[in-house]
From TrEMBL:
Pfam family, one: HTH_AsnC-type
HTH asnC-type domain residues: 9-49, 181-241
SMART domains hit by this protein: HTH_ASNC
UniProt keyword list: DNA-binding, Transcription, Transcription regulation
Protein name: Lrp/AsnC family transcriptional regulator
InterPro entries documented for this protein: AsnC-type_HTH_dom, Dimeric_a/b-barrel, Tscrpt_reg_AsnC-like, Tscrpt_reg_AsnC/Lrp_C, WH-like_DNA-bd_sf, WH_DNA-bd_sf
Length: 327
């Protein structure tokens, strides 16, 4: 017998979700105090969201602040090779996400090579020699308008401004110089990438440091802006059944204005200026294909400076930010 469908998310579920988007490591006690419920209620709703919407809190790094570049790579593949290649790319530690689009013959993946050597080996050697790939185009992220460290804090939400203020972590103090990481930092970040709410005891075990030093390291990485917490979840339970990628060709004079406009749209969950003829990329979520049509014709069509737009449905998310074989 099939399992019953989970109940739709209610107002408190959405408030807990929004609270975690503001601070993914906020203690349940602080979230409870802001929402006016008990700690146990927040913990139960967190578990419910994990089950119903596949909610996960992930510790992410801002690669720019580590002196590294982030890339979006588009791979056009032979019809019988895309899925197998996508699965192989998903297992690589330097891929952030991997999606199948355009009838299942195109792969788009976010990549974070740790060095120029790793980048060149991947883009100019491994991918070029892969039999299933017809064409490769790589686009460096130049300027993030929305997503990552800048994500989900300026859109219409279910919390009041006072509640948001009660959960907002201190703003990071960014430096122009890349922040060096030691072995303990790398071990700590590896654990938080799998589970951003890992306990101090779990982080202590992974690093071999005292609990007090682990706590200071987490705070130092957050205050420098290197470490931030992203919330990953399925959009279906929220009525967003369709996801799409948009590639916009924008006049240089209009780049900043178009980027800010996209960042303000509730549908958009990521947008950045990139290298290439299509110089702005965005991903967005919609209720239906008709909602995507309305968005393109009404909101995108109203923006000045856009010369062309390419849109494609995301058919399958092969990797979402992290990958753990066997899970």
């Amino acid at each position: 017998m099939a399992s019953p469908a989970p109940a739709p998310l209610d107002d408190l579920d959405l408030k807990v979700l929004h609270a975690l988007q503001i601070d993914g490591r906020a203690p349940f006690s602080r979230i409870a105090a802001v929402l006016g419920v008990s700690d146990q209620t927040v913990a139960r709703r967190y578990r419910r969201l994990h089950h119903t919407a596949n909610l996960r809190v992930l510790g992410m790094t801002d690669e720019n602040l580590l002196g590294r570049q982030s890339w979006i790579v588009r791979l056009h593949c032979l019809p019988d090779g895309a899925e197998q290649l996508a699965e192989a790319l998903a297992k690589r530690p330097d891929t952030l996400y991997v999606v199948l689009i355009s009838g299942g013959t195109e792969i788009v993946c976010g990549m974070k090579p740790r060095s120029r050597k790793e980048r060149d080996e991947l883009l100019f050697d491994r991918l070029q020699r892969t039999r299933q790939i017809v064409t490769v185009s790589a686009h460096c992220l130049l300027h993030l308008f929305y997503g990552g460290r800048l994500g989900r804090r300026s859109k219409p939400t279910v919390l009041t401004p006072e509640q948001e203020a009660g959960l907002q972590p201190p703003a990071p103090v960014l430096s122009d110089a890349p922040l060096p990481l030691d072995a303990a930092d790398e071990a700590l970040l590896a654990v938080l990438r799998r589970d951003g709410r890992s306990t101090l005891t779990e982080l202590q075990k992974a690093t071999g440091l005292s609990e007090a030093r682990v706590k200071r390291k987490v705070e130092a990485l957050r205050s420098a802006g290197v470490l931030y917490f992203d919330v990953q979840y399925d959009r279906g339970p929220l009525g967003q059944a369709v996801s799409a990628m948009l590639w916009l060709t924008v006049a240089p004079r209009a780049l900043a204005e178009v980027g800010r406009a996209l960042a303000s749209h509730p549908e958009v969950n990521f947008t950045s200026a990139i290298t290439g003829q299509a110089n702005v990329v965005a991903s967005a979520d919609f209720r239906s294909p008709d909602a995507l049509y309305t968005y393109l014709s009404a909101k995108i069509g109203a923006l000045d400076g856009i010369h062309a737009v390419e849109s494609a449905f995301i058919l399958r998310q092969v990797k979402q930010l992290t990958y753990e074989p066997g899970r």
